[in-house]
Specification:
Blueprint: H1 5-18, H2 22-25, E1 27-42, E2 59-74, E3 77-91, E4 98-112, E5 115-127, E6 172-185, E7 190-204, E8 213-226, E9 229-242, E10 245-247, E11 250-253, E12 256-270, E13 275-287, E14 294-308, E15 311-324, E16 329-345, E17 348-366, E18 371-388, E19 393-407, E20 422-435
Length: about 500
């Protein structure tokens, strides 16, 4: 009897990563020195809670972020490896001085014309008061590659927005993560989707010690295409773990685990060459293995996406269960999100706007009592304008705002506490360099959000089919090549109206 589809998917992913391949042997790579220098201001240098206004220090700061970037290309593959060191010096508030380290690796590998895998790993170390400064404006909060997962929102498999609850204070943290996403086309219209991610969050040198937290997310789905439309059936499993902690002979944190199971359906439609939409609905179950208590709730989602050779953007709404690895808790509620990076003008790609914003209103899932307890409201905005010379020098102006408020409602019975209220503003003026310069688009981390998959880069080196569309799937009328091979020169945009 053949193995089930989920087992075949995992075996295929392992074979791709571990088996020797002539394609991987023909790799060309380039190394680059990269760096940024920023001058900024914040009204809460130590990330202190609103309950401690005396500790909210306003300060000007200087941030230096030197790093090394390796770009690797070959037959059927593109890879990106980067290390960044961050040093932040607060003028007049030396107790807030912070440093951090960040490593990111991302891989896109095309096995054949029907299968591809995206994989990666990341790690971040630093102080919590510069946590948001260590990520790009349009990326979701999530120190681990692939984010913290969820129960099937429309923003993607790795999280949707930067609006996640965070701890307060100048704590030292370590986040790690690995992920993989596999797609395989059984036929021209039937596709298998499989993904796995593991994230961790550790608070170091805290007194009393805090528990190490982990989330594991696995998803398995099937996509069926009908022209410009696609229907997806998907199952998600999330497992959240808080490890026990002993301090001065007492167990201050017990072992805690929570399980999230969800099933949902998605409907995607390509409206045009650049725009696509998605609707999703389903149900999710939050379960505590120790008490066997469970909470069932509906999930909903809607999103619109934009993509072309020069930028991408997405906006939408989700109602779902979300495990938060930073707090070691599960929340159920609603979110609005928008993020993207696009040129300011049709005629040039030198000036770009990028950012992400999100609003979350949710309740803590207390699986000990199978009830919704404390409320959490989070609003996050991170917007930047960047000028890029396309010769290795760029400059940007960036604004960040973060606010979270929480409250314990009447039926809180298990003693599980929400995070403290926190608010913060920050403004940064940054100059960046890359030497030697090379056009370096990001490596995709998730499967395509379009039915025709024209937002995927071409790494197949297939001269017959340079657009690398699925065999037998017709191109949309008027569609142009979705990707310019990475020759080291950015694509150019002609003058003309955009859709």
């Amino acid at each position: 009897m053949p193995p089930p589809p989920s087992k075949r998917a995992l075996l295929a992913a392992a074979a791709i990563l571990l088996a020797p391949s002539p394609a991987l042997a023909q790799l060309a790579w380039t190394a680059h020195a990269v760096g940024e220098a920023s001058l900024g201001w914040t009204d809460n240098a130590l990330a202190q809670p609103d309950t401690n206004p005396a500790g909210q220090v306003e300060a000007t700061f200087v941030t230096l972020r030197p790093g090394v970037l390796a770009l690797i290309d070959g037959i059927k593959t593109t890879q990106r490896l980067q290390y960044t060191f961050t040093q932040t010096i607060f003028l007049g508030a030396s107790e807030a001085n912070s440093r951090g380290h960040q490593v990111d690796y991302n891989l896109l590998y095309t096995l054949d014309s029907r299968s591809e895998i995206m994989a990666g790993a990341s790690a971040s170390y630093g102080q919590l008061n510069i946590f948001n400064l260590m990520r790009s404006a349009s990326s979701p909060v999530g120190g681990a590659a692939g984010g913290t997962g969820g129960t099937g929102g429309t923003g993607g498999t790795g999280g949707t927005t930067g609006a996640n609850g965070l701890q307060t204070g100048n704590l030292t943290f370590l986040t790690t993560g690995v992920y993989e996403n596999l797609t395989h086309d059984y036929s021209n219209d039937l596709r298998l989707l499989q993904g796995l991610s593991v994230s961790s969050y550790h608070v170091l040198e805290a007194t009393p010690p805090q528990p190490a937290r982990f989330t594991i997310n696995h998803r398995l789905g099937t996509e069926r295409r009908y022209g410009r439309d696609a229907l997806i059936a998907e199952q998600n499993t999330n497992y959240l773990v808080n490890l026990p902690v002993e301090y001065q002979g007492f167990q201050t944190y017990r072992f805690q685990s929570q399980l999230l199971l969800s099933a949902l359906g998605r409907w995607r439609r390509d409206l045009s060459e650049r725009f696509a939409t998605e609707l999703s609905t389903g149900a999710a179950l939050a379960f505590d293995p120790s008490t066997r208590n469970a909470l069932l709730g509906p999930t909903l989602g809607a999103a619109v996406r934009f993509h072309d050779d020069f930028g991408e953007a997405a906006a939408g709404y989700n109602r779902n269960f979300t495990p938060n690895v930073f707090l070691g808790q599960i929340y159920y509620g609603d979110e609005l999100f928008a993020r993207g990076a696009v040129p300011f003008f049709e005629q040039t790609t030198n000036l770009r706007i990028s950012g992400g914003t999100g609003l979350v209103w949710s309740n803590l899932v207390d699986t000990n009592t199978a009830r919704l307890t404390s409320s959490l409201r989070v609003f996050s905005a991170d917007v930047g304008v960047t000028w890029d010379s396309h010769t290795g020098i760029n400059a940007s102006l960036r604004y960040q705002y973060f606010k979270q408020t929480s409250a314990i409602i009447e039926n809180a019975a298990s003693g599980v506490q929400p995070p403290l209220n926190l608010s913060r503003n920050a403004v940064l003026l940054t100059v960046g360099v890359m030497f030697p310069y090379r056009y370096a688009p990001p490596v995709p981390r998730e499967p395509s959000g379009r039915v025709d998959r024209s937002d995927r880069p071409d790494v197949s080196n297939d001269a017959v089919n340079p657009n690398r569309r699925v065999p037998g799937l017709p191109s949309m009328p008027g569609t142009t090549a979705p990707h310019t091979p990475n020759t080291g020169v950015p694509p150019t945009r002609g003058i003309g109206p955009s859709l």
